[in-house]
Amino acid sequence: MRVVVVGSVNADLVVAVDALPAPGETVAGGRFARWGGGKGANQAVAAARLGASVTLVGAVGDDPFGDDALRELAAEGIDVSAVARVNAPTGVALIVVDASGENQIAVASGANAEVSVPAASLGDAIVLLGHEVPDAAIAAGADRGGRVILNPAPAREIDPCVLAARPILTPNASEAAQLTGEREPEAAARALAAKTGAPVLVTLGADGALLLDGDIERIPAPRVDVVDTTGAGDTVNGALAAELASGRELREAVRFALAAAALSTTAEGARGGMPRRDEVERWLSSP
Length: 287
Fold this sequence. Notes:
By secondary structure, this protein is α/β, with parallel strands linked by helices. The protein has a single domain (2-10, 38-92, 109-285), classed as Ribokinase (UDP-N-acetylmuramoyl-L-alanine:D-glutamate ligase). Helix content is 33%, strand content 26%. Strands 5-4-1-8-9-10 form a six-stranded parallel β-sheet, sandwiched between helices. Helix 1 packs across helix 7 and helix 5 packs across helix 6 (185-196).
């Protein structure tokens, strides 16, 4: 089964510093790097590196950032034929990362605001959707595909048409709270499941995730030496889609996805540490 990602494509402009700046503060002495980014593109890369057949639906500008993005994604084996070139700048994310791997991110959406989904059916696919593109594109993706995963980041009201597709929701704890008004992840998960009638996965960073699928279970994340957490959530989503597409049962897919996400934090950049399948399998089988 294929994975179809409907989501954003950005250029990530990253500065690594010892400590994140406070409001109004300038922190000097950082190191600069540019990486491929955008939650949709990152999720597509994560899924492709784990062996999934991936199509990305998105948009980039007719500019050098767009050229680089398409070249990098195609090099990962991703089908980019549904990534449109539009008359708007390619999306850009400005990211500051501190010595512990925590980050601050500001995004200029640019071309991502013009993403649309082709009129034809997406077929028998795992369709992975995200909130960095317009609601119309999200609703079209939910309507035209197979099993749906929605990563509601950034958090905003979910279109009733999308809820009707019974998506697996994958917010982090903060997003789950914003979507429901419930501060406790378990209560938030139950509130979200009441809207969808489908499983809910609330990611908890280094503490793993909470999976509501009938019963509630906390699934731990492997412990690693963290370098950069940028893209860890995207890795969870891309890996979850890839594993479900391969036929893996949901709980085991989540366990695999959390291991992939943990490994992704051991290198700089949203995609720098995203692992291949054999790396995750070795990690999971090690004592």
